[in-house]
Amino acid sequence: RKWALSLDQDQDVGVLERHSEWLKVSGQSNLHTEQVRIQSSHCESGNFNGILNNLDPTLLLHLAQGHRCYLHDYGSRNKKRKAPRAIWYGVTFVKYALHRMWGLPGEPPKPILRGHNVAADFDHALRNLDKAVKKKIRYFETYVDTDEIRLFGIVGSTEIDGRRDLQVGYVHKHLGDRGGLVQWVEPNWVEGHGLQVFDTAVGFEWTPDS
Questions:
Q1: What is the DSSP letter of 194?
Q2: How do residues 138-155 score in pLDDT, each as one tens digit?
Q3: Model's pTM, two decimal places?
Q4: Where would I find the beta strands (DSSP E) of the chain?
Q5: Which residues of 76-107 are buried (b: 16+ CB within 10 A; e: fewer)?
Q6: What does 94-127 look like in DSSP terms, one character per residue?
Q7: Parallel, antiparallel, or unpaired for β 35-37 and 116-117?
Q8: How far apart are CA 69 and CA 13, in angstroms?
Q9: Distance (Å, rounded) from C-alpha 203 to C-alpha 106?
Q10: Which of 23-32, 49-58, 78-87 has the lowest mean pLDDT?
């Protein structure tokens, strides 16, 4: 599943699944977006390493800073629960895990899944995380400036679920309006800050015409 990160001037952060759908609905094609991959199958199978390892560094940094982050999901297949597993399960685990691993004050909110307190299960999972995953998450502990993890879910329906052609079209339009993934950096600005552009093909011999 594809997710995106949108930033606005109020330092609220939106993490969106199928961000092409969000661009279509909101019409805010000027939003800054970042890609994050979260798989509901990891939640279903209890692959806690996978859930945490796929968290984008930009998302982790904003959460560590205490910014409000919103997880948007369109097209849940669960008509009874309405919220997808990545929301009701994934968000619950991520908030609990980051609270514990970053040593935030007090106890994290009780993680309730399907009416059951699963704190013991989550604690067991955290004790058995791969070392590489622990290292990745704890790297951002240095940047923590909050006493809680502000991650929320927002769910909506879609009429283009599975329409990859339409989703790709929205993304292409968005990137076209923004001028591509990365804005052009003027060579004079680079040189003026004592920096150099490195091209793997020509090394430091790079020129604007390369």
A1: T
A2: 999 999 999 999 998 877
A3: 0.75
A4: 2-7, 13-17, 35-37, 69-74, 112-113, 116-117, 151-156
A5: beeeeeeebbbbbbbbbbbbbbbbbbbebeee
A6: HHHHHHHHTT-SSPPPP-EETTEE-HHHHHHHHH
A7: unpaired
A8: 4
A9: 51
A10: 23-32
